[in-house]
Amino acid sequence: MFRIGVDERRARLGRRHRLGPECRAADPVEAAAALVALHATDPATVHLSVAARVPGSDVAGTERALYDDRVLIRMLGMRRTVFVVPTLFAPIVQAACTDDIAVKQRKLLVKHLTEAGVAGDPEASGKWLRAVEESTATALALRGSATAQELAADEPRLRTRLSMAEGKAYAAQPYVTSRVLFQLSAEGRIVRGRPLGTWLSGQHQWSPAEDWLPDRLGDRPTADEARMALARAWLSSFGPGTAADLQWWAGWTAGQTKKALTAVEAVPVDLDGQVGYVLPGDEAPEVPTEPWVAFLPALDPTPMGWKERAWYLGEHKAKLFDNTGNIGPTIWADGRIVGGWGQPETGEVRYQLLEDVGRETAALIEAEADHWTTWLAGVRVTPGFRAPLEKQLSQG
């Protein structure tokens, strides 16, 4: 097998993820496409990931792409996570990942409704859920766009409570509202629109998909066709990677992963003793980039693109990841993580290097920290998932 070493993988990362100075993206759509999709669990991540890759970008430009031009769309995708993807690629993500998630989540919601006594058995709970979904979709169509609270006013059954973890210390009785809207969005019927507050807000208006994107999504591919297309996109952006990397990233089964890799005729390569894969014809070395540094936000797509991360993470996992596997803000130099950053209440960017990077790289990092302090202009971004080093740098 052709061997691809760590240095080559880091060179590919810098160029293909648009982090090298001569490799930057022209706009938010190009940045998103370069990474297949942008993580959107934290709303701020979308804007910061774009700004790290598109020179001169600002919040207004990314919001325009999302909410005015609608060339980007926020949707549920890989690993039951919310992403922002290029609109034309949304049917691929839907058929490759989201449709399966919707089926599993419907079964789970029917189970919870039955346990909460909403209906006497799963069949009756399923009928109740379908009725509430149709009523909610109708109410949304009449309004054109609406918040969850407005829809609950139109359809009172959305205020039905579930009974979660009964008898446990963490027992809860949440409204079914968010679960019904989640289900409708997972099935591609409704779309998350503008945030209710600033660009840091996680609350959004909802709109019917056919109103938000009339004639934009086209026909859905089959699941096999979509998984093949998604595997090809991942290999183009993140390859070489192992089958375990792709399976984890996509949230697929081992069988789905193997079938997709076979369909794209993925070429096995030697990753220092592990079997990795690239697309046919992609074995040759990448053109090296100029030296680069980058400040990436929590849950940026680059560090979350592989399951096996030692080749770019080194020994820094304990300081940069939380206990559930979510990465905090990171500092990169030439394809590897060298530190982390955070913001105290005063808003400036503070950072800490976790290894010796040399004088020239340290100067580039200092300048990049100043750039981000200026870009954020006093806005403090607090990740939803707090890594140890980020929490440390955010104190005081």
Structural overview:
- The longest helix has 26 residues, at 90-115.
- It contains 16 helices and 12 strands.
- The model has no long low-confidence stretch (mean pLDDT 95).
- Strands 9-10-11-12 form a 4-stranded antiparallel β-sheet. A 3-stranded mixed β-sheet has the order 1-7-8, with no helix packed on it.
- By secondary structure, the protein is α+β, with helices and mostly antiparallel strands.
- The protein has helices at residues 6-16, 28-34, 43-51, 59-68, 90-115, 122-143, 148-154, 177-186, 209-212, 223-238, 243-250, 254-263, 310-313, 317-320, 359-376, 388-394, and strands at 2-3, 38-39, 72-76, 82-86, 190-195, 204-208, 267-271, 274-278, 293-296, 330-333, 336-342, 350-353.
Short description:
The protein is an alpha+beta fold and 396 residues long.
Topology:
Layout: E1 2-3, H1 6-16, H2 28-34, E2 38-39, H3 43-51, H4 59-68, E3 72-76, E4 82-86, H5 90-115, H6 122-143, H7 148-154, H8 177-186, E5 190-195, E6 204-208, H9 209-212, H10 223-238, H11 243-250, H12 254-263, E7 267-271, E8 274-278, E9 293-296, H13 310-313, H14 317-320, E10 330-333, E11 336-342, E12 350-353, H15 359-376, H16 388-394
Parallel strand pairs: 1-7
Antiparallel strand pairs: 2-4, 3-4, 5-6, 7-8, 9-10, 10-11, 11-12
Helix pairs in contact: 5-6, 5-10, 10-12, 11-12
